[in-house]
Design goal:
Layout: H1 4-7, E1 21-26, E2 33-40, H2 45-55, E3 59-64, E4 67-68, E5 71-79, H3 87-102, H4 104-107
Antiparallel strand pairs: 1-2, 2-5, 3-5, 4-5
Helix pairs in contact: 2-3
Length: 108
């Protein structure tokens, strides 16, 4: 309750200056890919990330969701047709997440 006003979004809500970063690696066991997303936190962020995965037909096997101050630091274990992302799919996922999380104004 005492931090309630800090959690509300609106014109006076503090914004993070952290740039969006998407890093994709293969998991230790080689069965899936690890997608780490660091981006300013906001309402609906997790929904937008999951929708982006769904739009490119990537399945989320598990997720670790973390927020550090105003920055979301989320890690997803994902597969594409039951295996890790190949280099083309990794590039597609990275570009799609960056595009939808940053917006056009931050990509230029």
């Amino acid at each position: 309750p005492e931090s309630g006003e800090k959690l509300n979004e609106g014109p006076n809500h503090p914004k993070s200056k952290e740039p969006t970063k998407v890093r994709i690696t293969t998991s230790d066991d080689g069965q899936c890919s690890r997608v780490r997303v660091r981006t300013p936190d906001r309402a609906g962020l997790l929904i937008d990330i999951i929708k982006t995965f769904k739009d490119v037909n990537v399945s989320v096997d598990s997720a670790e969701i973390d927020t550090e101050g105003l920055v979301a630091d989320d890690t997803f274990l994902v597969t594409y047709h039951g295996g890790p992302l190949d280099s083309n799919m990794a590039t597609l996922v990275q570009n799609a997440l960056t595009y939808y999380l940053c917006g056009l104004d931050q990509l230029e």
